[in-house]
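#onboarding

Welcome to the new folks! Below is a worked example of what a typical request in this channel looks like: someone posts a single protein sequence, and someone else replies with the predicted structure as tokens. Don't worry about understanding the tokens yet, we'll cover that in week two.

Example request:
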Amino acid sequence: MLMLSTHFILLFMEPLHALYHHYLDILDIAFQPIVDIHSGELFGVEALLRGTDTLGFESIESFFDCLFEDNTLYTFDLVLREKVIKKFCTIHSYHEIKLFYNLDNRLFGMADFSKGNTSRILKRHGLDHKSIVFELSEHNEIVNIDNFTRLMSHYRHEGYCVAIDDFGIGQSGFKMLYHATPNIIKIDRFFLTDIDSDPKKKLLARNMVQLSTLMGCRVIAEGIETEAEFLVCKEIGCHLVQGYYVARPTCECTQLRLQYVHVNALSLLEKRTPGDQNIIRKRLETLEPVSMSDSMEVVVEKFKTDQDLTLIPVIDKQGLPVGIVHEHRLKAIIYSQFGRSLIQNNSSTFSVLETYVEPIPVVEVTMSLETIVELYSLSESAPGVLVIESSKYIGYLSARVMIEAVHECNLIRARDQNPLSRLPGNFMINEHISHAFDSGKNSVFCYFDFDHFKPYNDHYGFRNGDRVIVLFAELMHKVLLNDYFIGHIGGDDFFAGSVIKNEMMFEDFCASVRKLIYQFGEDVHEFYSAEDRERGCIVAEDREGITREFKLLSVSAVIVYKGPDSSINSAEQLQKIFAIEKKNAKYSPEHLCLIID
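Example response:
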């Protein structure tokens, strides 16, 4: 470090202007895309410094440490900020996206720190304040959290977007979330690495997403490298995604895309199997929004024109909801003696729309109704939720409408649910199979059928037969957990299935089926008399009236693995395979037939 400081001090002997330009000639800026997790559309780019190693520094952090030690951190950052913004403006359609710029929190303690500099740079390049997102993290210790949150609030008041980077690993992250309420949260990579195979990380990340969403913050899943991680982040409600799975950082602006098709492709698969979407879409209230750039006169006029209107959604220039304006907040102003004058006075805070905006949960239309209601229920005062599709506002769901939607959804599921086992019936089983086929991904399907169930039912009665069916349903929940879809076809026929992400998942599925077969064979013995258990069979008449022995109950299974080049292309084909192969499964020593296609 001493050698690096000496290197820096020798350069520092030059005039400051020449020194900064010497550094800037060597340094370059790479941009990494941040995209909508549902559509793959480009939301913004994060600026990343490149070339510090050429200057002799071990890392980017050590470079900024050196600037800090020499008390030139803020001065250099302003020059760097100019360079970044200038290059950002060479990106195609840069006016439609946001620039994420990392701020070293030590800047605020520099003696030469002053306000208004970024505003002047943006003005020179024809950008407004909402074009830039300042990222703040705890890479360096925050000595005075109160001063820090005041500065964050200042940036928000000036119209900038503020993001907390590396959220979840620092000591002050939740304090900053509470005091300053940033616009965006970036969950630290630690919580997202292998999140698809780590239930504890998934639980923690889900809670972070829910908390942030309730406070009106958008959530970025940062550092996503695999499709499996991506899908879990999407499942838990992250709004945006960044990482190698989307694209690596690039210094060539022409390599950036307005949409990343592999991300969009996953979203299209969801739309083929709408789930709760139809219920949500048909109940959406398409309240006309106002833009953050609109005057308060426009808002007041809307409330005056429509007497039934109680709230108005507010969106930014990109169509993303930022909150609502509620009529009750305006009443005190509108109906006061000088209220109209205050709103018309451009120098008054009462004339600024942002003064009246309230945060409200924002949900994606592809989310399950259960997740939407859960997010809403965690909010103490929100009258409903704003709904987006591909980061664009499409409508509003009030609390009353959500209750109606839940009721409708429950009726649909109740009609399909088997009344005995409480498992999904044929409608949802077929929906699962269709989704698996449409996805084009490797999938596994399993058909279960009891052995010797009719003799047992005839001998012990249908009530005991029902108890056996309930036993198997409970074992399915216990052994298969929530990792796979399970359903009840009817009678003593059951189903399980899943999209397979890797070979290990397929092996785990087969192991679970084997365990289920064994466990049922063991537990079902309790439903026999002591005499039959000891004999190992029941003695009863068959359909022709002949007395004979029947083995104790067991279950057989047919597992069908559908690979990328499978010849199986319909649910009807799958059912034929089950019908043919279940006989082979019954005669198999392990009561299992495995078909790999």
